[in-house]
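Protocol step 4 of 6: structure prediction from sequence.
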Amino acid sequence: MRKSIFTWGWSLGIFAVTSWGQVAAVPLRQIAPEKLRYVGFDDKLSVNQADLEKATICPWQIDPKCPVLEPKNKTTSDWDESQRQALLTAVDHSLDYLTTPKAVESYRQQANAEFNLERVKRSLWRFKELLLMTESPAALDQAVKAEFVFYQSVGNQQGQVEFTGYFEPAYTASRVRTAEYRYPLYRKPAGFNRWSLPHPTRAQLEGKDGLASHKSLLKGHELVWLSDRLQAFLVQVQGSARLKMTDGTTMTLGYDGTTSYPYVSIGGELVKDGVFDQEALSLPKLLNYFAVNPQQLDQYLPRNNRFIFFRETAGKPPTGSLGVPVTGDRSIATDKSIMPPGALALIVAPIPDVETTSRIDTRVVSRYVLDQDTGSAIKGAGRVDIFLGSGEVAGARAGLLNGKGNLFYLLLKDN
């Protein structure tokens, strides 16, 4: 089965060092309707900044002790049409998936009887109708809470859901090796499926310094060359990339296979060695550490023996494990052995966003999302990875997304 190109997201792949607990026997539990008044609506759908107050929720838990928040501004909000269209696009991608034989087979194995294929389809069609027909984001919120049942993830052993972010990198690359562009990304060898186990390690394939391609089993399988070794490694972490080539063209790459090793987080290794405290580690700090100490790349990168192969994707958008495109801020990755693939969800999480000041600030918000991807380290009911889009800004946001929140799945009520 084809693996997700996003198996190893930024924050997850680099920073995840915690055990998220055992899989819960019942990962989703219906919540009482009266608790929905503590859940904020999706302010990203609105152009009215005052709606941020309506979207605020009691952090981390749906708790009866939380005060009901009354917005100061009572005006009707207006749609952000670009955001509404992005959400509609994500819904359509899930509906496409739900017509496939793969979806039929997946839902035969679903642990939650309520989440059957036809009911998930009906839920998405009705949500799409409401998204098109309601007069405002606030009206959508009222209609969804009236017509849908909410199922909350039980989370990890502490009852929490840990959120991280991932994205599609955008770097400059060369089609040929030069003195500047020396670090390759590789296509999968034709005979890879016949390689004996255990597979060669990362150091054996690319050298401890990343420059041993001329001595490697992979010689002749180079797709592109990057100027920065850490960038090349991080493309492997993300599993895809949009590359600006030195000849002025653009190349898009997608995941095409991996060696048979577990993923090892370089952020986790830095924490284990005492370089950083877990709470203090962030993407900017990690990048700065290796910029100041480039020799440490030779020590830490080879600790992750998992090696990723790529193929050209001819400009296609990044694709999740369901085989449909993922949408920035609207697609999530979860453990598909227990969570319903393609389903509509609402997340309550501390998400970094670009504010009007052009700064990236993190605040707890709610977002409608579609469950369209998975990941090798996304295990259990307490892990969610959010796709944040492509490019530098998406990468900066993803590097800052690391916190606790809530995950809900929505089903249309049975009448």
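Step 5 (inspection) to follow. The chain has a mean pLDDT of 86.
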